[in-house]
Design goal:
Elements: E1 2-8, H1 15-32, E2 39-44, H2 51-62, E3 68-77, H3 81-93, E4 98-103, H4 111-116, E5 119-121, H5 130-149
Parallel strand pairs: 1-2, 1-4, 3-4, 3-5
Helix pairs in contact: 1-5, 3-5
Length: about 160
């Protein structure tokens, strides 16, 4: 199952990019034998300032057809890393070719796009900067693959 991160905003070089690249490479190595990956990042920018609705239209264009769509949203499900790993395995085992994790802009995800999603996931009640959400998501994807592979990375 291919894993897509579909996000508003462009990732610049720097510490976040280095972490995303590192965790993405780890996920791809670990996930390959599990039928997970590759992981790819797709970015959009609303240069016309159309707000959430315009961002939703741009995001909708880059979400692969038929993908299981997961919006990253503070109102979503909060779950442990092992449960997230199991969800990822369940989506894969259900025959999904793609899973798309959607990260909105500064104002969040348009309600219409959120309503179309298959699942909403939260990293807690706090609001996180969008670039850090990307890093945390990449780390959790690697952690999930490691849990599914029986690796030592997750010690909880």
């Amino acid at each position: 199952m291919r894993v897509q991160i579909c996000a508003v905003g462009r990732l610049r070089s720097g510490s976040e990019k280095a972490l995303i690249d590192d965790y993405s490479a780890r996920f791809d190595r670990t996930g390959r034998a599990l039928g997970l990956g590759p992981l790819s990042l797709h970015e959009v920018e609303d240069k016309k300032g159309g707000g959430m609705a315009a961002e939703a239209m741009l995001l909708d264009k880059i979400i692969p057809a038929g993908a299981f769509t997961v919006v990253m949203d503070e109102r979503g499900a909060v779950q442990s890393s092992p449960i997230f790993a199991q969800n990822l395995a369940d989506w894969r085992d259900a025959g999904r070719g793609d899973v798309a994790f959607v990260i909105g802009g500064a104002d969040g995800i348009d309600p219409a796009l959120r309503a179309k999603a298959d699942y909403a996931l939260s990293f807690g009640a706090m609001v996180w900067p969008h670039m850090l959400v990307r890093v945390m998501l990449c780390e959790q994807l690697y952690r999930a693959a490691n849990i599914l592979a029986g690796g030592p990375y997750h010690r909880a």
